[in-house]
Amino acid sequence: MNLADMLSYADIQDLSRIAHTYNCECNGHSKNELIQSILSMVSRREVFERQVIDLSIEDIRFLNSLIFDQRGSFSLEELIARVQQSRFVKDENEGWNPRDMISRFKQRGWLFNGYSQNTRYLFQVPNDLKRRFSEALTKQLQKQLVYTSEPMVYRDEQKLIVDDIYHFLHYIEQNEAVLTADNTMYKRQLQQVLDRLSVKEETVGKTAWRFGYGRLFKDYPNRFSLIYDYCYYADLITEHNQVLALSEKGRERLSQARKEDIVQVYRFWLRLYKGAIPNLQSLVHWMDKLSKSWVTAESLKEALLPLIRPFYYDSAESIMEQRILQMMMHLGLIRIGEAEDAGTVIQVTKLGSSVIQGSYVAEDDKIEIPFDNDSEYC
Prior knowledge:
With 378 residues, the chain is α+β, with helices and mostly antiparallel strands. It has helices spanning 3-9, 12-21, 31-42, 45-53, 57-67, 76-85, 98-107, 127-142, 160-174, 187-196, 222-233, 248-255, 262-273, 280-290, 297-304, 316-330, 350-357; strands at 74-75, 112-113, 122-124, 153-155, 177-178, 237-238, 243-246, 295-296, 334-339, 343-348.
């Protein structure tokens, strides 16, 4: 529903609070006048954009968690959890209550209780306001960006990852791969696999701190770790009795010479990484909106880093560079180049834009990655 519909279902007390927020001058005892006055004020671009500009960074993070979510309703518990996620630095001595932010959003007419018996305890964001929030925040973020011309050289890995998933399955078909006690490939065979792939990666050094981005992320390099996990969770490979082998489904893939759908690999990446990066899906949408033309990586980081929460020893900057930008390039969603005068530059690919806009993963749909609490990496 749009704002006008939600206002018509709201009671007069809620309408009065919203009208007061926008300094509406009208008959406070007339529901119709309150609605018309609120709609008139909110429809004014300068009023709406001023409201967005005046938001705190925590407000923006909370709003960001809502505008790309395709679900119509949220429970109070969900909203409280999202408000808590928006607060990166906590002051134990400060009397902070997440319900206060939810109340402010209600007073602005940005959140409404449902009107039916089944939705009265749920909260909804008007659809037309979601679009306007997206437009207003895009305009705000674009002011921080530096756009450039096309660089002389750039990396573009479109479709290479689905080719390499096929190459990996083909290797397993041709070679018996005995696994270690913790179900990882021995170095010699791992190196043989890496040598077959289109994008070269080095094996992982023992000193690196690595967990949270895949089942065997601490043992395999970033891109191959994603390939391996995709094959494992898609039931293309098995690890029975410490032997890595093709499943029946994996053998069928090879017999049909059928490669994976990049949309499914992208959706899997979202589900795998969002445990560590809860707002990954919205960050990818911002990448799509902000990098239609070549843009400097530095200015893009400046715009989006405040939205990225550090994950243990992974800083917001390393998450942006290694977990988001590099992986989006490996998925063929973006191309990354080097410009003489602008340094590293980025552009979303046509394939990437199509995949991002055409895919959605529910916010609570994620793959939980177990890790050993006694591990040196934790």
